[in-house]
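Possible race condition, two jobs.
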Amino acid sequence: MDNLILETKNLILKPIEMSDAEAVFHFFNENVTKYMYPSPAKTIHDTYQFIHHSIALREENKEIVWVARLKYDDTFVGCFGLHRKDTKTPEVGLWIQEGLFGKKLGIEGMTEVINYIKENVIYEDIIYPVDRRNLSSRNIPETLGGILAKTYKKKTESGKELDTLEYRFFKEIPKDYHPPVILFQGDSITDCGRNRHDIHSLGDGYVKELKPYFPRAKIINRGISGDRTVELIKRWDHDVISHQPDVLLLLCGVNDVWHHYRYGKPMNLDLFEKNYRLLLNKTMKESLQTKIILIEPFSYNIGAFEASWRPMLSGMIHIVRKLGKEFELTLIHMDDFMQEWAKHYPQEAILGDGVHPTELGHQWMAKVIKPVLRDVILSIEEKRINQS
């Protein structure tokens, strides 16, 4: 039994026993099972039966259900399951008690379960099914490098329909699998000190913050400090079209304002729209598969950014929103988020000079972008499996 006990930084996972029945019965409720196949036990006797059955399967080397508790105070966390252990396609799953939602304990425990399988189980691929709407649970296979293999509908014990995404952790990645290419384009906010001589350099900003959540993707940062839309046009073929990205995230505009007022370079709203429209048209005509995500520009009237400049930037934000709607593109209202955050935190803590995000600002940007990018990647992966 000792070799079945797993430990992480915060958790200890032990094979389920009858002594766990009261905790399992208490915490396995309607909120926890919202996107799961089983329903909560009606009586504790049902929970005892479940544990008895699980122990029997464990003794037959077919299944392991672990109960997870916090190391430091023995608080009950939830259960992690390894099912069909005796097959080439074992399946994993978990549930966390709702009082500990959002603590990242699910991904911490599941990482250790998957490591256990890799070291102790003969398998071809590990299956991780999850409901599309269960974003916190979806985060686990997507962050750990699972690959979407199929989608299907399934009825729960109570008759609810699950919209299931089946991720797989392959022992050997299929030769016909091509990881998505995600390209970030823009100015210094995107550049953020990247090494332009190193194609793998992501800089020290929001692009780097996003990388751990997309381990299978090829991520490219082509932001260049100081660039306006006119400079982007000049290098669009080399820095965007040549890469034929699956996803393009575009954040630009603030330098068009900055350089106009600070250095007297020509710019007005009509010219900005013309340039921005050209970038979109060129991408959609010459990189047909590319999904485009527009990130609107943003600012605070502090530091280097003067209040008198804001009307032009607001006009550019309106143009980005208009073009996003016209071209039916995904749009992230980043300026709205910036203005909301400023109600609760000092502006200097988010955009140090009114334009460039601080470390905290980049972290919050990544937090906003991550779910949007995840959904776009999911749509690409679904298209891939539907065509295969």
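Job #2 (started ~2 s after job #1):
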Amino acid sequence: MKREVYKISGMSCAACSSAVERVTRRMEGVAGSDVNLTTGRMQIEYDETCVTPEQIIRKIEKAGFGAQVYVDDKEKRRKEEAAQAEELSSAKRRLVLAILFAVPLLYLSMGHMMPVPLPLPGFLSMEQHPMAFALAQLVFTVPILVFGRNFYVRGFPALFKGNPNMDSLVAIGTMAAFLYSLVMTVMIPGDMHHVHQLYYESAAVVVTLVMLGKYMERRSKGKTSEAIKKLMALAPDTAIRLTDGKECEVAVEELLPGDMILLRAGSRIPLDGIVTAGEGSVDESMLTGESLPVEKSEGSEVIGGSLNYDGMLTVRVTRTGADTTLAKIVQLMEDAQGKKAPISKLADKVAGVFVPAVMAVAFAAAVVWLVAGKDFSFALRIFVSVLVIACPCALGLATPTAIMVGTGLGAQNGILVKSGEALEMAQRVDTVVLDKTGTITQGKPEVVEVWADDGLWQADGSLPLSGQQNKLLLLAAAAEAGSEHPLARAVTAMAGRGKLAVPEVSEFKSLTGYGVYVRTQEYGEIYLGKAELAQEHSSNAAQWYAGAQELAAKGRTPMYVVADGVTLGIIGVADTIKETSAAAVDALKKDGVRVYMLTGDNERTAGYIGAQAHVDEIVAQVLPQDKAKIIEELQKEGKKVMMVGDGINDAPALVQAEVGCAIGSGSDIAIDSADVVLMKSDLMDVHRAIRLSRLTIRNIRQNLFWAFFYNTVGIPVAAGLLYPLTGLLLSPMLGGFAMSLSSVCVVSNALRLKWKKL
């Protein structure tokens, strides 16, 4: 199956997007298609052996819309944004001109109905010169219909092709009112009373108000994609490339992996890379949500789009184009906005049959009133009002606008949601399963305790290491200097922080499963490792046994240090929990979520870490291949599970869970398998992701309620249901205004999400 994105043109409402989905889904070999009205894009999955892009495009064009394969590149995006800006500007000009003609038309046609009649020149008097009165209205109306010609250009072809939409409703209603008025105008010389049956102002003002609504809607929709635009604006257009020591400013598109670039203080980093020289602090807040600058030095990774605060950095480019972190974030957001949440399917189904049903209701209501004895002008008013007020735009905008704003809010906080389905599912989560290493914990061992003859040093203490403790660490660092083992790196890193002068080693042996042996000139033979190694090569290992057991009980790995046949002490190394892990778990539990910890570690270590993190349940000694089975068992119990992990071994479990959540610092495979990516690698963002989901879905439900409520109430009123009881009859103009207002209200409600705090 191939997944492809198409740019769809000519859509104006939910009925349009439903029509495109309907015709493409019926094609042989198409597994599914999702059309986003807000972005104008369609994601389609199809079998290349059964259907081709050309066939897909022809099918869409036959339905009355334009389609082309969407190709993402910077220049194309700029042209597209320029075209959208020009389209918005053109819509504004047409709207202003329409208003300039509509105001005098209303004055002319409705002025005499005011409590105090508005003055008119004598030659335009309705009673004395009815033909001039009618022709003047015609003169003002025609330009307005020309300015709003898109309704007719799109609406009638869609109707004739069997896919009526909102434009069809407006086109039929206003054209019926206009043509009826035109006939009445022609008949005025024979009977001047026909001047009272003119509906030029209804046709013109409805078109003007719908144009106003469309303009406001378009402006609002533009704001929903601001997050993506801001992200894309982060990447600079040029960079300083270093070639043989010479600086040359080049377009970012010219850079290749392996190129060296120079970053001065205050400049944006163009692409992902690794620092080869220099030191500085980099602001990554727009990409990770982390407000504090990150210190960078030789060997540090930098992300394209981040800002180099201070210092000068030389960077080797590692990723370009679509492979950069920034490009992937943008792609993830666009994919998420293009994929529909299950909650939107109801709206889509309704919109697909809504327009034909409304046309039937409008026709039936007009016939009923004619049969009831009302004249044709009354029935026409009913017909036009029902068609205009029933526009399903609000219905079509309810879901995609909220999802766009929601995913944008998530991205601003370092939470990347890959799909609308994941965004909806997250609010149903009642169980969160956390991997231990790298998720709850830092993911790398650190020296946390040093036991020597002169006392105990702990990492959370304020006192510096004593002389004996420093000696112990010095000897351990000498023993581990030639090893790449994570425990070795923890020891050498601690020695480096203490600026200890590590002695040179003349001999090194790795004692597999036990530890290491080295020989130094100053301290002789040194052994570092397990208790068995110390027992074999020292006489006093037993006196440290209780301390080692105490370390193990706290989830530490005890390392015995032996020099010249004497055990000098033990070093405790552990993978410590992240600062926010316990607070994040507490926040999840407060939200009614049960928290599990899943780990391959022994029960003692798992129990200690689990207690520190405040988790509800601990599942220890789990093999990597069994993690997905644990998730499946929880699901069989009826639980909705979110799995949070960072490693390759977590990938099957991430896929199995209702929502897979990957730590941003984790493996590429884990990130690819997940539905949500936490860029800050902070567990508190799990709580924020669930809150984001709940806020977004609540917003969608509000939008759908008001869209359904509006149409449920508006259509019967427009059909004249209240007229026999109250004499109340909705005019087409008020119907047009209400329709436009409903769309704007839905989009405005969605935009409220931008100001929510996660």
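The CA atoms of residues 287 and 404 lie 17 Å apart.
Logs attached separately.
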